[in-house]
Each structure stands twice: as C-alpha cells, then as structure tokens.
Amino acid sequence: MLSLKDIKKDYVVGDSTVSALKGVSIDFRENEFVSILGPSGCGKTTLLNIIGGLDRYTSGDLNINGKSTKDFKDCDWDSYRNHSIGFVFQSYNLIPHQTVLSNVELALTLSGVSKSERRERAVKALEQVGLGDQLHKKPNQMSGGQMQRVAIARALVNEPDILLADEPTGALDTETSVQIMELLKSISKDKLIIMVTHNPELAMKYSSRIIKLLDGKVIDDSDPLDKNVVEPIKKPEKEPTKADKKAAKKERKKLKTSMSFLTALSLSRNNLMTKKARTLLTSFAGSIGIIGIALILSISNGVQLYIDQVQSDTLSSYPLQITKTTASIGEIMNTMAKNHEDSANHDKDKVYSQNAMGEMINTLMEETKVNNLEKFKKYLDDNSDLKDLTSDVQYTYATTLNVFTESDRGVMQVNPSTLLEDMGYMSSTQMEAMSRSGSMGGMMGMGTDVWSEMIDNEELIDKQYDVIAGRLPEKYNEVVLVVDKNNEINDYVLYSLGLLDPSSLNGIVRRAMAGEDISVDSEQHVYTYDELLDLKFKVVPTPDFYKKKDGVWEDMTGDESYMKKAVANGTEISVVGILRPDEDASSASISGAIGYRHDLMTYLIDEVDNSEIVKEQIANPDIDVFTGLKFKTDENAADTDSSSETVSDSTADTESKADKTADNSDTDKKAGLVAGDSSMEIPEGMTEEQYKALMEQSGASDTGELADMGMNAMGSMDMSAIQGGDMSSLTETQKKYIASLSDEQLELMKQMLKEQSDTNADQLANSGKYSTSNYDNNMKTLGYSVVEDPDSINIYPVDFASKEKIIDIIDDYNDSVGEEDKIEYTDYVGLMMSSITSIINAIGYVLIAFVAISLVVSSIMIGIITYISVLERTKEIGILRSIGASKRDISRVFNAETVIVGFVAGALGIIISYLLTIPINMIIAHLTDVPIRASIPVSAAVILIAISVCLTLIAGLFPSRVAAKKDPVIALRTE
Fold first, then answer.
1. Which residues pair with 546 in a beta bridge?
2. 932 touches 303 (CB < 8 A)
3. pLDDT of res. 582
4. How far is the C-alpha of 574 from the C-alpha of 561, rounded, in Å?
5. 59, 53 in Cβ contact below 8 A?
6. Cα distances (angstroms) measured from residue 839 to each of 189, 303, 842, 843, 845
7. Which of 103, 218, 783, 830 could be disulfide-bonded to 542 (CB atoms 3.0-4.6 Å)?
8. Contact 174, 14 (CB under 8 A)
9. What is the average per-residue pLDDT within 240-262?
10. 3-state SS string over 614-676?
11. 106 or 686: whose pLDDT is higher?
12. Could you give the CA distance from residue 332 to residue 366 in angstroms, rounded to a whole number?
C-alpha cells in the first residue's frame, strides 16, 4: 500500500546542507497503528510530512499503491492529501473563525462534494467522535480534547486511507489523551494510522507497531513487513491502451481538488467578521476615492440632466426650419466675409469705399432658392430613424386660421389678431408680414397672434407644463389656454381674445402721438378656471368670406350681417384645459396663449380644399373667380400692352405718371388738412397765415377731436355726393362735418377726389380685359394648401447630438437628389449651446482624474492590509494545504477577501455619497435658482462598485500570490 524506498531529505541552511532523513526505507500495511518514536530532531515530523505530501523528498521514492510519486505534480500531491491522507495535529490546527461543522466540511468542499452530502458526512464524522451536539460552536468555545476530536473528525470525513497524527496527545491531559488514543486505536482497524509521539508508554499500549528513528535513520522496527525489504514495483503486464490512458486521466481529473469561489468568499467573510472594526475602517478608507468620484458624477449628472432639459426645451422652441423660399444665411455671411478680405488689397493712404450692399444683394439673390418640400416631406416620412431623434416634425401651411368670437358686442376676429392695427401701431401690411413669420414670431417674441400650434409630443408637453385645470386637447376642435408661471395672462391676450373690450384701444397710439391724454384699463381682472374653460370660439375657412354674385365671387367681409351668419356656421372650438409652465422648464414649446392641435389645421385645409370657390378656381385655372376676367399670360401680354396704349390715347391728359406720383404726396397733405390732421405739413402754395386761419376756422383749439371726426366721417362717405353737390345721401354726422369745413378745405377735398378719380380711370384703362391677379395669388388668398406640400417644415430635435444626426440625414438627402431638389435650412440655435456638454464632461473628467489618485492610493493601502492578513492567516494557509487545498485555492481565498473589502468599500462609498447629495442639493437650491439636482445614476453606482472591487482585487494579487507560495510545513508551525 505505502512504501518508502531510500528516502532522503536535505535542507539548505545558508551555505550548509542539513540532512534530516538519511535513506529511510519502510513498508506499511493497509491496516495497522504505527507509532514513530525518537528524540527531537531525529526526523519524525519530516518523515510524517513527506508521507503526507506536505514536504518533498530530496531523493528516493514514495510508492502509493504500487505507483511511484517521482513524477507527481502539485495538483497530484493536492489530490493525494485530500483523498488519501487525514492529518491530526498536536495544536489541533482548526480555523478559528469557522464553526466546528464548517471546519469538518472544509475537506469535503475541496473534494467537490454537494452541500447536502457534505453536511450529512460531516455530522456523521462528528457523531463518531462524540461531538454530535457541538456542531455550531466555534473552536475557542471548546476544550482541548474536544478540539482534538474535531481535528480527528476532519481527518476522517473524507474517508482517507491513511491517518497521520503528529503528537495528537501532546497538548492534552492524561485522561483526555487516553480517550484520543482509544479513538485512534478503534480507527486503526480499518485504516493505516501513523503517529509521531514522544510518549513511549502510549505507543507501547495502543500501537501495533513501533518504529524508532535516530539522526534521520530507522534504528528499530518492532513489526517490519517482510523484514523491511521493499518489494519491487510491479510493472504492468502490457502497455496501457488509449482507452486505459483516457480512463486514468478522467479518474485523475475527478480526484482533482478545487475550492469554489463561494467557499473562498465564505472563509474570507468569516475571517473579516472576526475583525469588524478593522474591516470597516479599511473599507471606509477605500471608499474615500469612490465618494469623491460619486459626488462629482452626481453633480455632473445633475448638470447634464439640466442641460438635457434645457436642450429639449430650447429645441422645442428653436427648431430646424425649412421653408419653401429660403436663403443660406451662413453662406451669405461667409461670402461677404470673403469678399471683405479680398477687397482689402490697396494702400492705406486714402479712404476707399467698400461695395458691401451690392455684394450683399448679389449674394442674397444667388443664395435664395425654392425648396421642394413635397419631395422632402416624403423622404422624412419614410425615414425610420427620425422618430428617435426628434420631439416632433411639424408641417405648417399657408392656410389662414380665421378665429372669431361672438359676444354682446358682436362678432370679433381674434386670429389673425388685428389689435395692433386697430391701435394704430402698425399697418395691415406689417401685420400680415408678422403673422406669416410663423414660428419665428414666437421665437423672437414679436408674434402678433395669440394662437399657435402645439408640438405633437404629449410627453414633452407634460414635462414643460402643468395642467392646472381641465385636460390636454384630444380632438381637433379642442384647445388649451396657457398662463404664465404666476397664473397670469397678458392683457394683450385678453384684448385679442375679446375678454377685454378691444374697441377701447382703437386709435390709441395715434392719439397718444398727437399729444392727447389717454387712459388704458389698468385694473387687474380675475377669472375663475370655470370661466376660462367656458370660452368658445368659431373657426371660419377663408372661402366662407366670399359669396357668388352675378357669376363672380365677392368679398363679404364688409357685410356685418353676412359675417355674423358665416361665424355662426363656423366650427366651434372649446377651451378644455389650462396649462402653466413647469417651474423647472427652461423654455416652452407653445409660443401663443392658445394652443391648438395639428389636426385642426389639417381639418381646415380639407374644408378649404372642398369649398365651392376653390373647386371652381381649380376647374378654371385661366379665369379669375373674383372678376370673371382671364389671367394675364405671356401669350396675351402683347395684346394687353396694345389695349393700354389705345385707351391711354383716348383718355388723354399729357401729364406723365412720374408727375402724378410726385403729386401724390401733396394730395396726402391735402387729405390730412381736410381731415383736420394738425401733424400734416403746410401744402405748397399756402402761407402759414392761411394755414392758421384754416385751423382756427375748423376748431384748431381741439385738433385731435376734429381729426377723429374727420377720419370717421370720411371713412364711409359717398364722395360722388360732394362732387355732384347732392348731400341727401350723407349721414347727419357727415353733413355736420362738411358744414364745418371752410371753403378752402372743401375745395381741397374736391381737388383730391378729382385726382383720385383720374388715377382710378387710368388704372381701369390700363387693365384692359385681363385680371390684374394670377392663379397662384388667388389660391393663396383663399388659403388653399396641399397636405403633402407644406409651406414650411419645423424639425424639433431631442438634443444637440440628435440635431447633428438630423443634419446628417438632410445632408444624405441632398447627396441623393439633383441640384434643383437640394434643401436649404435655417438652424436658429446653431452652436449656441453645443459645446456646453463637452465642457462639463471635460471638467468632470479632470476632477475624476484627481480624485482617482486617492482611489489608487486607497487600493494600495487595501493591498497592504491584505498582505497583513496573509501574515495573520499563515497557519490557516498551512491547514488548508494540509487538507488538499492547492496554491490556486489559497490565492482564491485572499482574492475573495479583497473582493469583499472592495465591494464593501464601493457600497459604503455609494451609500455615503447618496446621503451627501441631500445637503448638496439643499445648498445648490439655496445658492442658485437653477434647478440642478445632484443624483448618482444607478449605472454609475454599479460601475463604481465594480471599479472598487477590481482595484482592490488587483491590489490584492501580490499578497495572494505570496500566500500561495508559502511552504505549508512552515505555515503550520506559525503561531
């Protein structure tokens, strides 16, 4: 079974060599109790360690079951100790931080035995040594005899063939020693027990064989096997086949020992729990770097979330806008800058002009182009990536949203708003231009209309607004009213919506400029939510403003009764909700006070397209439906010019159009004087005295009142009655006004009317038989649009990174189409905030780099602590090696310890950082109004814990390697 043949063991100590064993040859039976006696230093323990595979022989051979061990590798010796050897030590060598049951189970763990079987066998072994009721005690809670019984149970649990006992009774009293020896004697019936002892009495009493050593040699053997002659190793009768080799290899692999990482974690956890204070302090020291990085990330994350919100909110108001007619502002600026650089190639001895205006006009003409939005819209609709990159893609149309309200004061138009025009602030032309500015009006704060289309992204609206009453619109005929953060509505909105009487503002700007004392309602009005939710409006398609008379369509907007009927038949719009901007929202997507859904516009487009007048105009593209005349074309242009010349010859006066244009300014002055406008200049040919006399005669002491009366009277006056002298058709106010005029004023009025009549006759003569309009203008007037061909496209990116990707999509489109279909767009935000994220990230990275230094330092410290732990657990290393643990298993134990410390450090750092974000957020809220909330992302927390574990694991690699290389014999001697 076990045979030692000429075993020698030499130790090199300094420059000298010490021989511990000098050619020992012994054969052992399978079942016997062998005691090895001899004085200290004779080689007893060395022989026992060589038999147990803890130490290696210098020469000779150790045969196990007829197999030589000369070619054994470390893993073979580990397997041999685990499956064939059981050690019982004088000092018990139990792991103090493990329970009795865990100590016994440990050898089975290395053998790969399942948990249930492991527990069953360990309990059975403990019951065999009489400790079945002491399973969960720690070694320090037991007596010496009990601990030695645990050691014997641990040695027996793996059912080894050989039990090696090194002074098993050396630390026990006599009574306990007898009990242990009796136990060993009973075990020797089935196993080979080799005991080293200094007690010859016990050896003589309990051993079946006594071997004596002296100076490394066997000097006596009481019962040698075949006179102590080792039989030669029997060679196999034939060479093993491949199947035999494969089976042998499989068997060795099966017997190979391996400690699972969970077992290593358990061992390390129990060890760390015995040093809780030190473990916590070490973990806290390791967490300092994690805390620093986590706090930086939390603040950076809060800033980034704020920036993301600002980006989202800002880009919801500043989209990428693509209009039908556009100019590349960037190209214009680049061209002008280049021309400026190129022009500065002269001497500086004189001052030279710079052709900036001419270049700008030329460049503007070159860069202005018409976009094919119908084709581009189809491209966008087919692009699957666009949805994830945008909050919304909004298509706007030239169709006018005509909104009216009905009240006791009559019918009032609320959109497009005419309030500023009625006030005298700007002309109708300027009002129309501003109304057509679309989203730009909302962006620049210059819009005149209070109705605006909502972005079609309910999630974004929920982030930007709080619904304080009602709900969000769900149908095309539902709208919301938007108040500010203080629950207030601008009085401009109240006047525009008819909640306040807009007629009180009529002419107020002109009167104020004339120096009159005016008053504006400054009272703060209060409205309940229910009152505002009861608001109703009517939408009227533009074609409904026209009525067919005598084969042509007539504009009926001046007919009050017709308009009342048209408004009454319009589509009713209800206010269903009231929104207030969220306090944390940096921008808002609804530019007006009334927000409507996109499907209201599509509904209106359908109504316009299906109207009778539009269908008639489409069916007759050559005829003006408003006049019944043909549109002028290139073919009939020559005929038009010929007709104009003929009519001009018959009408006759020789005065040129240039002279008439020059006279217009004087006519305007005359009209102003007739109306009593004191701000007009004195016309040519009238002296200052004559002018003063006129003013006195007309009531110059109150020129403002006279001016109002004149303007109101002239606005609806039948001018032919004045020229013909028939005053019967005039109203009493008009007759009173005419009577107040002086002869000079009356003459001026007649002269002005004659000049206007001549101008109208001239225009009529030149008009011929063709309409002065064209088909496109008529369709535009009627508000005709095609859903597939928008007037402009507003693309709302989610953030700046998405904006860049959208620009790439537009560039890809431009690359795929011809020059005539390429798209020019306007980026209103540009690079305004695109670099902010990069700056924040760069600052964060720099700070993290500084804090990471402390993280590395703390990791090194953990490595040092781990090395100290290796020194403290040296004996445990020896114990584990004695029961079959490999060097890799030992490394795994200490790696597990660093993993635990790293995890605790990381988790502790994250927990402390989370707690610190509370006062940090309070400080930020106190110092600034910016809604930045420091918070650690869950992913960042997990990553930081993983980094902590990795760094401590790396720091512990060296100590764990040192532990693995420790000599188990020396380790077992360490106290």
1. 555
2. yes
3. 86
4. 24
5. no
6. 81, 11, 5, 6, 10
7. 783
8. no
9. 59
10. HHHHHHCCCECCCCCCEECCCCCHHHHHHHHHHHHHHHCCCCCHHHHHHHHHHHHHHHHHHCC
11. 106
12. 9
The tokens of 2 are what? 């076990």
> Please, are residues 186 and 218 in contact by the beta-carbon 8 Å criterion?
no
User: Could you tell me how many residues make up the chain?
Assistant: 975
Strands 192-196, 162-166: parallel, antiparallel or unpaired by DSSP?
Answer: parallel
- Structure-token pair, residue 117: 């079987």
Highest mean pLDDT among 410-424, 557-571, 632-646: 557-571
Grouping H, G, I as helix, E, B as strand and the rest as coil, residue 387 is helix
Alpha carbons 605 and 783: distance in angstroms, whole number: 8
Residues 6+ apart with CB under 8 A from 15: none
Cα–Cα distances (Å) from 263 to 275, 409, 945, in that order, read 19, 89, 22
Q: Is the peptide bond before 416 cis (omega within 30 degrees of 0)?
A: yes
* Max Cα distance, the chain (Å): 165
804: confidence class by pLDDT, cuts 50, 70, 90 = confident
How far is 942 from 294, CA to CA, in rounded Å?
A: 11
The per-residue b/e assignment along 944-975, b for 16 or more CB within 10 angstroms, e otherwise, is: bbebbbebbbbbbeebbebbbebebbebbeee
Calpha distance 812→270 (Å, rounded): 63
- One-letter amino acid at 734 equals Q
- Kindly indicate the confidence band of residue 580, based on its pLDDT and cuts at 50, 70 and 90: very high
In terms of phi and psi (left: phi > 0; alpha: psi -120 to 50; beta: otherwise), the region of 354 is beta
- Backbone torsions φ then ψ of 104, nearest 5 degrees: -75, -35
**What are the residues whose beta carbons fall under 8 Å from the beta carbon of 824, sequence distance 6 or more?**
322, 326, 327, 328, 367, 369, 371
Residues 6+ apart with CB under 8 A from 532: 469, 481, 575, 578
- Is the CB of residue 420 less than 8 Å from the CB of residue 622? no
Query: Would the CA dihedral through 12, 17, 18, 22 be positive or negative?
Result: positive
Q: 469, 486, 490: which is closest to 579 by C-alpha?
A: 469
The candidate with the shortest Cα–Cα distance to 111, out of 80, 149, 132, is 80
Cα 820–chain centre separation: 38
Rg, Å, the chain Cα set = 52
In 705-740, which positions are buried (b, 16+ CB within 10 angstroms) versus exposed (e)?
Answer: ebbbbbeebeeebeeebbeeeeeeebeeebeebbeb
CA pair distance 877, 891, nearest whole angstrom: 10
Answer yes or no: are the C-beta atoms of 880 and 889 closer than 8 Å. Answer: yes
Residue 755's alpha-carbon distances to 412, 676, 683, 712, in angstroms, are 35, 20, 16, 22
Q: Cα 832 from chain centroid?
A: 20
Please report how many Cα atoms fall inside a 13 Å half-sphere around the Cα of residue 128, on the Cβ side: 20
Residues 790, 378 contacting (CB under 8 angstroms):
no
Beta bridge partners of 217: 214
Beta bridge partners of 631: 771
What's the rounded Cα separation, in Å, for the pair 498 and 725? 42
Q: CA-CA distance, 377 to 395, in Å (whole number)? A: 9
Secondary structure of 683-726 in the HEC alphabet? CCCCCHHHHHHHHHHCCHHHHHHHHHHHHHHHHCCCHHHHHHCC
Answer yes or no: are the C-beta atoms of 908 and 283 closer than 8 Å. yes
User: Contact 797/391 with Cβ under 8 angstroms?
Assistant: yes
Spatial neighbors of 534 by CB under 8 A, at least 6 apart, are: 575
